[in-house]
Amino acid sequence: MSSVTKGADAPLQREIERFGAQVFKAAGSKTGIKELPLLARQMMSFAMEDPVFRSQLFRLVDVFPTLRTDEEILSHMKEYFEGAQDGGRFAKIAAVGTRYATSSKLSRGITLSLTRKNLEGVAQHFIAGTSPKEISKVLTRYRVEGILGTVDVLGEKTLTEPEAAAYATRVEELAAELEKAASGWESTKLDFDTKGEFPKSSISVKSSALSAHYHPLSASVGIREVVNRFETVLKSFGGDSLIVFLDMEDYETKPLTWEVFSTLVRDPRFMDYHLGLVVQVYLRESLIDLNRFVSLSQERVKMGGTPLWVRVVKGAYFDSELVKAEAEGYQTPTFVHKVDSDYNFERAVDLLLGSIEYIRPTFGSHNVRSISYLHAKASELNVPSSDYEVQMLYGMADDLAKAVAGLGKRVRMYIPMGELIPGMSYLVRRLLENTANEGFLRQGFASRGSYKALLKAPKPTSDYYRPSSSEHQLALDQPYQHLGTLEFHRPHVSAEFGRALQAISSRSKPYFPLTVPYVGGREIDRGAKEVSINPAHPGDVVSEVINATSELVDEAVSAAMAALSDWSRTPIERRAGYLMEAARWMHDRRKEIAALEVLEAGKPWKEADADVVEAIDFCNYYAHEMVRLGKGVGLLSPKGEHNDMFYRPKGVAAVIGPWNFPLAIPTGMTVAALVAGNTVVLKPAEQTPATAKVLVDAFRAVGLPDGVLNFLPGPGEEVGAHLVRHKDVAVVAFTGSRSVGLEIIETASKWQKGQVHIKKVIAELGGKDAIIVDSDADLDQVVPGVIYSAFGFSGQKCSACSRLIVLRSSAEQVISRVIGAMDTLLVGDPQRPETDMGPLIDYASQQRLKYYSDMAQSQGEVATAKLAIPDEGYYVLPSVALELPKESPVLTEEIFGPLLAVEIAEDLEEAVWLANSTDYALTAGLFSRSPQNIEFIKNELLAGNIYINRHITGAVPGRHPFGGFKMSGIGSKSGGPDYLFQFLDPYVISENTVRQGFTPDIVN
Amino acid sequence: MSSVTKGADAPLQREIERFGAQVFKAAGSKTGIKELPLLARQMMSFAMEDPVFRSQLFRLVDVFPTLRTDEEILSHMKEYFEGAQDGGRFAKIAAVGTRYATSSKLSRGITLSLTRKNLEGVAQHFIAGTSPKEISKVLTRYRVEGILGTVDVLGEKTLTEPEAAAYATRVEELAAELEKAASGWESTKLDFDTKGEFPKSSISVKSSALSAHYHPLSASVGIREVVNRFETVLKSFGGDSLIVFLDMEDYETKPLTWEVFSTLVRDPRFMDYHLGLVVQVYLRESLIDLNRFVSLSQERVKMGGTPLWVRVVKGAYFDSELVKAEAEGYQTPTFVHKVDSDYNFERAVDLLLGSIEYIRPTFGSHNVRSISYLHAKASELNVPSSDYEVQMLYGMADDLAKAVAGLGKRVRMYIPMGELIPGMSYLVRRLLENTANEGFLRQGFASRGSYKALLKAPKPTSDYYRPSSSEHQLALDQPYQHLGTLEFHRPHVSAEFGRALQAISSRSKPYFPLTVPYVGGREIDRGAKEVSINPAHPGDVVSEVINATSELVDEAVSAAMAALSDWSRTPIERRAGYLMEAARWMHDRRKEIAALEVLEAGKPWKEADADVVEAIDFCNYYAHEMVRLGKGVGLLSPKGEHNDMFYRPKGVAAVIGPWNFPLAIPTGMTVAALVAGNTVVLKPAEQTPATAKVLVDAFRAVGLPDGVLNFLPGPGEEVGAHLVRHKDVAVVAFTGSRSVGLEIIETASKWQKGQVHIKKVIAELGGKDAIIVDSDADLDQVVPGVIYSAFGFSGQKCSACSRLIVLRSSAEQVISRVIGAMDTLLVGDPQRPETDMGPLIDYASQQRLKYYSDMAQSQGEVATAKLAIPDEGYYVLPSVALELPKESPVLTEEIFGPLLAVEIAEDLEEAVWLANSTDYALTAGLFSRSPQNIEFIKNELLAGNIYINRHITGAVPGRHPFGGFKMSGIGSKSGGPDYLFQFLDPYVISENTVRQGFTPDIVN
What we know:
The structure is a homodimer of 1004-residue chains. Chain A is of the alpha/beta class and 1004 residues long. Chain A is built from 34 helices and 33 strands. Chain A is globular, with a radius of gyration of 32 Å. The first copy, chain A, starts with 5 loop residues before the first helix and ends in a 12-residue tail after the last strand. Chains A and B meet through α3, α13, α17, β17 and α28 of A and α3, α13, α17, β17 and α28 of B. β33 of chain A pairs parallel with β30 of chain B.
């Protein structure tokens, strides 16, 4: 890589400035948004001035294609712009005076048709056509002007098998048409480089569109499907007919795309094909990828194949990469400063031009500096202009493209073909680029920066050189933050996880012979034994424990009482310190713990990992929260008096945990109690004692004093009931079923002789959670959101979606895509990485699901996934129940499994009414792009957690404090700022500071 | 009054400057603290530099006389100074290196004796002597230097009858001694003015020291006692022997002192006596008082009496007036800027010199400007120097006094006589004055300001002209603040209150024939009748109501359910608005409502008023709180997601209130429920339906929609129980007895068919509250604090002190003063203003108290107040139980009446252990001046409300969120920031804002 030192690079910079000035001059000032139709141009220019307007405008563009009627368009426009500062502007520009429009039917009609025409006009500016025929005409036209093309088929998100197949077909049709068109074009010098002639035409294909399984953990399935479809496509034309670029998409799928590409280019059948890959230089690891690419091409050339093509781009998924990384707690894979991408682009130029003999490089950019650098560097290295290519986007900067071509460079346009709906997200990305503060088109053309300044070398920030690190700060002096889930898209992470699983299953059985109960620091090793099994292989015993007895409950509570005095007086920071240390202990063993959950709870990899992450988050969050509460709450204090509110522990807490989040939920309840200064007796679920025991191990490892945390596996009817009844238990924290919860509440409310407190019960019970799909919802969001909410961990979450409520107007479309996506779910042993759905937890669950499924069948219709399921294990197939009568128990009772009931509502009000028509109020969801409808449900939908435009499970402590009301529970939200109050008694200190004759706080 | 215009006043100002310069010159620079012994001077000068050091130093001075052993002195010094920035300084000055001192027994002894000597030296500088003999010597010495004197007898706070008598005796002894001394002095011109010769000597007497009842509401008793004692004192010497000044004390007792003075000066027996009053010009109303004084003197002169004396001072209770006003929510009676007092002093000079013919004015000041103004104004008005007098404080500015006397003015020193303990508060006030930023001595002498600047005319601030207003801002857009209690010390307030009482008792009986129950906006007028009676006159029926039935409970809950939908959707600001309006409605009728409580609950005036104030405060506080919560709680939100937590109402709330705070407590629970969006069914206590009904009246008056608040008087066993059991009741808020509370908790926890929520119970139950008295406590604070806490409203508060825990070392002294103070309590009909203790609420209470009193008698000893009580009414006498066995039920069970049990502990640890040895944890108190002991009990004392150095009842919303734990209740504190949570269900909205290809909140 070259470094930018002034002396050495002076001639290079001079050449950049010379060439750049020529480009600017030739392109004129009309490049970029200036090429848009007048009104659209005006709109863009306002968007640049006002970020709020820009956002609202893009929201409108985003939702526009799904709006079916004029009324819908009108109401969305009103909602997005009415009241906004620039609403008037937009109205003027789009010829839509919303007030005016609503006042008269006639003018409203005119207004709307103008708006529609206007937005469609903008779309047409960026999307060249809807059919291969139209597109080939565009290519021909460009060719006349000395410009080449590569065609991209826009598509909706591929969520079902038929969608993947349809996309492949459209690509084949396009290829055929382009082959035909190219045969009519004469060869010119544009079609040659020093390595020879190459195909006259080109397509760009998105791998993700060719499979519904194109995800990191189901990589093996997804890659196989994509390679298969690619082979078919490639075989449909000759190797010299088309250059085929594999577009690069989000970072998560990069390893998959590399795998697809490597497979294809090494396939002897395709040695004469012109195949290209895209590398995004906004990725921190892109230079490594480019080196790898050069090697791959070198290898292929040596094997007698054609040199590989590569397109270097800066990258178009910046927003979503950032959001995803922050949401999941991943390392951000991209540079965060635009200038670093610009700088890295030039390093990519250096690298590729230096390896020119093995490759055919192309460079996608509208940045005149980047293009000029390419030119100057090539000159310096004596690489002829024929041997590299500049690519630009259709509709973005036509005059710029012509100018660069006119200066003797090979230029190729990237030309999208497609319908309005799938095109809109493409369109929004283009509009964003045009209006971004940091974008070159805005700086270079819209804002008329000075040429010289625009041609200056990009100077990397310090972040460019920052070594990547995945260390999470699990420390009290750092603010709380969500721990990242495992980055399974990084191949070594998946591999390690596989090894952790392997390590357990290679042990002798029971894998975990546990020396529990654990009482007052003592391990109990005598008594009746009990086991937990692997629900995917019921014959496999995962762990073996001793069941606790009533006598042991008494002992454990005594131990907890004895430990209370010291523990409650342990400084808060120290108590919080134990939580942080336990969190770090679990963090160091996260893969091993998650692997245990895969075996004991039947959780797929991601779900198992998420449970461990949540357990760590709970430790981290509550530790921070208690430190905050420890500072006390300020109160009003008149002069001469100091008033403060503090909190003390309640005493001994009984924690009774469930099996579905076998580590996270017991951890949350336990560590909240502990950090608040209470001591704990923890009873785990009978199905998952080994996983819950991890928590005990963690706290033993970090030296928690004996008796502070006691652990009693055993049957709920004996151990749980006796614990709840015990006079010295001050708090009961329970997560589980409604019936057990109500029993606990009733039992705990009976005062027992010698009891000197009123028991506090925190109960998280069931849910019957609905997702409502509004008519304007984005189905690309809805379908994966619903599928994951309903079928993730086989629906065995109290937050799982068990009811889908759709509006009649979009019902058919929604239901068919949901069922199609359900059909792509991979059901099987959760030990396999690709498994979307494992078995249910036990036989009783399997029977319960069968019971409700039969009921649904008899009362309505059931669509069940067309899949094979393993013979062994408690599997049931995911299914969707339709046409149920309103009073069906399938619609009102908690089923706790992968059976999704669909209801149809006439309008949103009815949808909300249906959603609220159960005894529960836990989670609920809405997919909508109407601000007014979102506001409406915020006030009307009855649920403890309302999720908008996303899945309804997977609450993260601190972000989504979790818990419901009605029969879904009592107590405030876990992972929220009110939660610890439940383990604490507030007390106020009021100190009169007045002394005889003076008041220290009055200074006079 | 003259105004300060430059032109007209130029000669005056010139004379001020001329005379002032002479004073400064003659006084030299040694005036003020420069007259102190070296070490003390140094100490003072550090105090001026460092306010923290100053505070701690004064705290030490304050506590010093009560410290019995060297160990105690040492530990206090360490606690006050160790770690403080200036600890080292203090150590050096007082020759106390605390670290050094603790390291060696010998040096510690030296250190301590030096410290003691040093502090005593400072005290002796300001206090002239301990016996009349010593004092008369001081006076003789001054007389030689041409300076007169008036002697003040320092005393502890008079809390018992013997203390008042002893003080009178000491004054008499002093008078006799002074009379004797004066007879040995030759008359000089100092003893004459143009009106003739006057007594050679003088005393200054504090009226409050002559009675334990010298308080506004017991004014009639207190004034009678003081006048009687004064008469005896006056009659002990001849009218021409002594000038007697009545000192003015705190603002509250000013009307009493005026009354005493007016009575004495109009008494034909004392027409030839020289009597004087003090007027504090820091009081806003002081010029009015001075006019009144002039009229009084004029009247007396016309009747042939001697002209009256007056001493104008600026005022020495600034801190405590400010603190009291803020604590009680009174108007501040003083100016708040020193300059306004200075300005007002000159207006007083103008007024008095203008009326010189009828009066003998004296002026207390060390301010050279003030003194020079007096001189110049007198010159201008041709008032000879013999006709007015300048007074100064002994030890403050001797050189200044001599200088002024040397310039031909009559100067009189104010000379305190007394022991160290009562002297310390006097001492602290003097030290404060010497070190105050705004004080003249500091500015004029210590800091060496320029003469000219110091002699400038004081320029009043705008506050000087502010019209006084008692309007409380009961408005949502103002921050919440405690409503002031009635200023009974203002005579018209007491008079109005008396009239309000009169108005009720002149009605025919029942005073309040109520048309309740009130259900769904409908008044129920048929059914079984029930009455409430006046516990002071059980034959008087206060109100008559219809008892509700189970059927009516069902109707009321249905009405509340029906009203819920609209009410819960009413915007929060509007709901809060109803509360504010209801608060204003009650505020407008506060005296009438409180008068009703006097009759129905037997509350003394102040207690009744406080209950109304608290009700209004609850409306105001919860309204503000809900507006705050309505804004939602911010949560962590990663990019692309907005997370917020909001709160919704739970549904129908059942509120079951007690009789002891018959308006405030039902109001608190009800309005919290209402403002949170719940609808309410309120069941009042059977004893006080009319008072609780006021709340309903208030909300009806402000238009609360029908059904939102329903009111069901009736027996708890039927109405309360049925309400708690009702399936549609979501919240039960109860305040009352432990047994009923536990029953409610158990009943509410049983799920009822059709119930779609888990009931929330908020229960405020009993207490067995202790006050601990540390060995260094200030008994002047302890005794009134304990008496009020134990016997206020006859101990019928759950927060009342029922156990007094004293350390053996100070036990005798504490117990005897407490019993002595108990003996001064006025027990009688609460309709009389002076009543401290009225009857108990009912016959059952009277019997219960008898039961426990008999038990105490048989198990230990009981001291009962030596008082007569009315024959009629449920009265019991206040009493103190001693020597009880540890396990006595008198020490552990809630008695709810005026029986205070005393326990003796060996040390503070044992005291805390005793305090914690009950099932309850409601309130507790500590009196201590040891920071370390205060810190210790903050962590160890188990109580929901811990009060330090004050009474333990009378929590104010927002300042003292109230409520306990253990068997004292469950739920968070009323009047605190967590309270509303209990009527709300939290819910979280998580909105994914990412759109295809863009994220509106990422600006790029």
